[in-house]
TrEMBL record, chain A:
It is found in: Cell membrane; Membrane. It comes from the Bacteria. The chain crosses the membrane at residues 25-49, 56-79, 85-103, 132-165, 185-208. This is ABC transporter permease. Keywords: Membrane, Transmembrane, Transmembrane helix, Transport.
Length: 231, 312
């Protein structure tokens, strides 16, 4: 093997272990998605809540901030003491890290909506729930997605570290590379798909984010003349 | 109209997320779900994958893997805490002085008997008979060094030991009974410097000339690839390290078919065979999972042999 250069080794590695890398890729992706999904289920309602009761906002955001300052490896180790080894501990870690961007973005998204719109909604006789579903959520959706996007990219990085407590995923391949004789190619075989996954999810979610931004979409749909002028 | 579209997009998004969450990560909530733990060595990973494939081949169980644990002590803890219920590779010598805190025993058979008994009685765990290979510690030097100083046995190091830097496994150095302190007592010399390192790095260190002598494992594939000379343990210092599976009895009682699958691997892999498998993983860039699969496919998951045994 030593007569091949790193680049050739890298491709040789993929030809030998392609199915394995793919399997780990899926595991890695699912762990990240689960953590972020759980955080979204908890974080979005919490963000809405604190935008309504601003007294709570400082408290909850401070807690989320504190969690964010703990180094990932330390948080993994702390949770491992209570939850043991394996995937669920990593999912929990990802969940905790994803809370801040999701809560904060939901809170900011809803708070930044033009108050006139909400007032006119109320003036039309909408209930609070209707205001939330018909005005606030649609208008802040792109900001919330932006939060999920940040959370997911961070989550993919954290999941790589999760291999240290036996969760599997692409981090497993990286650790093996550090133990192997000439592991550069193996390290790359773990690291490059990880980076690739982060970039793809980022691009995909930024696309969705743009699609859901009512201001940008509205401009495109209704004022084509303005666009052609600026061109 | 616009609002409807937004709602539609939201519904699609939520559906997509729910679909994803349906792809379960093998968390069935079964108390006796098979969970195989392994340490960072290629050998441990290869055996873990072999066990996984054997169990999945012979039974309907879905196996979860817990990789990259730090040492056999961590493995032991994971088994006791219930994070795992099978350890892929446990060595008689390591567990005798590590988990069981007994005196080291030099006779391989006696060591195996005592370890098997102690795990049954104290932890309610079954220490299976050996896979057939022993991964003993051994001091190694490069071919060049061995020829220069005419080194064949560990005792030959005595004359030059005070100028030598030694790289050793970090779990060995403080081990009681067969650790560094006892080594110094038995052989009557110590090295100039002893560096505890992660075991995967020692072979590279001696190859690169950063270390003069290293303490490595006899089944490591890199012995062949770096052309290292294994020095004979002429004073019988290192106890036997026969490799076996260790499993929690609760699992074996609840799922006897798992036990049958594990037993098929007993005595099937020699030390030379293990060196070859390790070489595949360490030197030829093949993942342990693939190495294990190829080996088992070559041997037809040991099905034919089982048939022969039944005929007897």
């Amino acid at each position: 093997m030593s007569d091949l250069n790193t680049f050739e080794q890298f491709f040789y590695y993929f030809s030998e272990n392609g199915s394995y890398v793919f399997e780990q890729f899926i595991t890695h992706f699912l762990i990240s998605i689960y953590g972020v999904l759980l955080a979204a289920i908890v974080g979005i309602p919490l963000g809405i809540l604190i935008s309504k009761y601003s007294k709570l906002a400082g408290f909850i955001i401070t807690i989320a901030n504190i969690i964010q300052t703990i180094p990932a490896l330390a948080l993994l180790a702390i949770l491992m003491l209570g939850m043991g080894l394996g995937k669920s501990t990593v999912i929990m870690t990802v969940f905790l890290y994803s809370l801040l961007p999701i809560i904060k973005n939901t809170y900011t998204g809803i708070n930044n909506i033009n108050k006139d719109l909400i007032d006119s909604g109320k003036g039309m006789g909408m209930t609070r729930l209707q205001v939330l579903y018909m005005i606030e959520l649609p208008l802040s959706l792109s900001v919330i997605i932006a939060g999920i996007r940040i959370a997911l990219v961070v989550a993919i990085g954290i999941t790589a570290i999760g291999a240290f407590i036996g969760a599997g995923g692409l981090g497993d391949i990286i650790i093996r590379g550090t133990n192997a004789t000439d592991g550069t190619a193996i390290i790359l075989a773990g690291a490059i798909p990880t980076a690739f996954m982060a970039i793809i999810t980022d691009v995909l979610l930024s696309f969705i984010e743009r699609k859901l931004d009512p201001v940008k979409r509205h401009k495109k749909a209704t004022t084509p003349t303005v666009q052609s002028l600026t061109e | 109209m616009l609002m409807k579209r937004k709602r539609l997009i939201m519904i699609i998004l939520i559906m997509a997320l729910l679909c994803l969450s349906a792809c379960s990560l093998t968390d069935s909530g079964d108390d006796n779900a098979v969970k195989i733990a392994s340490v960072t060595t290629s050998e441990s990973k290869i055996m873990a994958n072999m066990l996984k494939l054997m169990i999945e081949h012979d039974t309907d169980e879905k196996v979860e893997m817990i990789n990259n644990l730090g040492s056999s002590v961590v493995l032991h803890q994971a088994m006791i805490n219930g994070d795992a219920n099978i350890s892929s590779t446990r060595y008689t010598g390591t567990d005798l002085t590590g988990a069981l805190k007994e005196e080291p025993i030099k006779d391989p058979k006696k060591a195996m008997d005592i370890v098997q008994k102690a795990f049954q009685e104290r932890y309610n765990q079954t220490f299976f008979d050996s896979y057939g290979f022993a991964n003993t510690y051994a001091f190694m030097v490069t071919r060049e060094m061995a020829e220069k100083h005419n080194l064949k046995k560990v005792s030959d190091l005595k004359a030059i030991a005070k100028d030598l830097q030694a790289g050793v496994d970090n779990s060995w150095i403080n081990r009681v009974g067969d650790g560094y302190k006892d080594f110094v007592e038995t052989y009557g010399f110590d090295f100039k410097d002893v560096y505890p390192m992660q075991i995967g790095l020692v072979y590279d260190a001696v190859e690169a000339g950063k270390m003069d002598v290293i303490l490595g494992y006899t089944t490591d594939g890199r012995i062949a690839s770096y052309d290292l000379v294994v020095l004979e343990d002429d004073r019988q210092f290192f106890p036997p390290y026969d490799a076996s599976t260790l499993a929690v009895n609760e699992l074996l009682e609840a799922k006897p078919e798992v036990k049958v699958a594990i037993e098929k691997l007993i005595g099937k892999i020699s030390t030379e065979q293990m060196q070859k498998l390790n070489y595949e993983a360490d030197n030829n860039l093949v993942e342990p999972a693939i190495v294990a699969e190829k080996f088992l496919e070559e041997h037809n998951y040991f099905e034919a042999e089982e048939g022969e045994e039944k005929n007897e």
